[in-house]
Amino acid sequence: MVSNLLIVGGTGTLGRPVAHKFLKEGCAVRVFTRNLERAREVLGDGFDLRQGDVEDPATVDRALQGCDGVHINLQGGNTDRQLEAIEYGGTLNILKSAEKAGVKRLSTISYAVDLDNYPHIPYAAIKRRVENAIAECSIPHTIFRATHFMESLPLYFRDHTPCLIGDQPHHYHWVAAEDYARMIFNAYQLEEAIGRQFDIFGPEAMTMEEALLRYCTAMHGKAEIARIPIWAMKVMGYLLFDRRIRFVAELMEFLGQAGENGNPIEANRLLGAPTITLEQWCEKRKAERRGELVEG
């Protein structure tokens, strides 16, 4: 186990559970963030917060001093250019700094899809380049290729109504970030996890529409979905000169084509299979909304 872990991207919905899991298990956790005030607000006490930007190598160097592990959880923004600069360029900066700092373990999140089949899609191409850069680095590493997260479901809401963008026919094994964080922690305890890619799948398979309906029914007591065609999103993006809208349309088009890819058997065997169902996850969210203390 590492004794001092730096988490890059530790304030988001997928980074926070990892930060809290390692802290709970006795590891010193340092969080690299652009916004210290927001980090204090969302993380609470007990974390060593370091301000910086992955596009500024000097700040990455300083943040990694004294750390023996680093977990990369970068979110590359809403355009191809941001994705390239942050996820790929930022990862390269982290790898260089980590090698200089003598980091002993490194991990990152990726996506459980056949990235090689979509080299023309910037999202997929950049994810593959990130994976390749990490696989080629000298630091003992582990890549977690996760499917869709339950925590992403609220992001599909617009004006209090869930929106299904494009045709999304594929089934996904939706996973809770709490289970994902536990599996990352377990991987750091195992030499056998070094140099591996693990596919992280949740316990239940359902389409995006089914997941949204179940989430909406559990959390809001209604089951209705607005449907937005991909072409309409693209036209809106062009008319508004908004590259972010077009990026979302292209991403959802890619998801509709690609689906889920991978095999979770080895991840489940070594790291412990995810157990949290969507209904259980929703019950926890409702308890949190009521102000009740929820373990995990």
UniProtKB/TrEMBL annotation:
Cellular component, GO annotation: photosystem II
User: Gene3D superfamilies recorded for this chain?
Assistant: NAD(P)-binding Rossmann-like Domain
The UniProt record lists the NAD(P)-binding domain at 9-151
Pfam entry (one): NAD_binding_10
Give the InterPro entries listed for this entry. Answer: HCF244-like, NAD(P)-bd_dom, NAD(P)-bd_dom_sf
Q: Which domain of life is it from?
A: Bacteria
UniProt GO BP? photosynthesis
Give a yes or no for keyword Oxidoreductase in this entry: no
Which keywords describe this protein according to UniProt?
Photosynthesis, Photosystem II
> What is the name listed in the Swiss-Prot or TrEMBL entry for this protein?
NAD(P)-binding domain-containing protein
Native source species: Nitrospina gracilis (strain 3/211)
